[in-house]
Structures are given as C-alpha cells and as structure tokens.
Sequence to fold (139 residues):
Amino acid sequence: MKQTGNDGDLPEVFLGFIKLIGEETDGYYRYEFIFTDNPDEFWGENFEYKPAGLVNDLLPSEEYITEVHTVKTKLKFDLIQNNMCFGLQDAMDGIVAIAFENIDEYESYPEEGRLFFMFGESFDEVERKLAMKRILMLN
Fold:
C-alpha cells in the first residue's frame, strides 16, 4: 500500500534502511526498502558503530518499521551497513547515502546519473528515483 500522507488518514513514510535479501539465479538483486513514519527516532542496535561494515546483520529495531517494500533489479547497490568508512549515524545526518548504485563494472558513468538514496527521503521520492531507472517497488 502506498503511503503518502496526502489523504490525512495515512502517515507519510520515509526511507530508513535498505536491506539486501540476495542475488537470485536470474542475476537480479532483491532488496527490502524499509520505511518509517518516525525518522527522528529511527534507530537500531549498533547503529552508533563506525564504520558500519564492522557490524554483522545491522538492522533497524522493529518498533520503527512502518512498512517494507521489495525491489527486484539488475542494479547492484552499495549499502551503508557494509561501508568501511562511514556509520549509520553519518547516513542519518545526511553526510552519506544509505545506498548508491555500484558502478564498478560500468564502462562509463551513467548518462542519466547514478542512483542513490538518502535517509529520510519520502516514499514518493524513492518511488520517483526508482521509476527513472524503470524499477518498481513491490508490495
């Protein structure tokens, strides 16, 4: 269900975390885009550790998760929880993206720009960015 907050009944939701579910046999990556209606209090165990890549299975606390949407794409994302320089707090402060398109195997920089997601982006903004690359959120 799409939550935009425009109808007054449903709270607006914001991107808090992206989790890789895995790479499928068809070469697609499956991700969970985790949204919250309370980005100011969004947190998880060990979110304060820096770099985030030192912590295994970094996830937000269930109490802050409002909804989860699945994304299936050929694009590989570099995720903040695997980063060996920055921590989750850095992403929450807007210093670094929580996920960005991995361009290591590209022959040139993408003409349409590199896809990235910042902590606290609205559902609509995330959906718009994915649509620019012809990717849909499921659920």
Q: What stands out?
A: Residues 14-138 form one domain. Residues 76 and 105 are 10 Å apart (CA to CA). The radius of gyration is 15 Å.
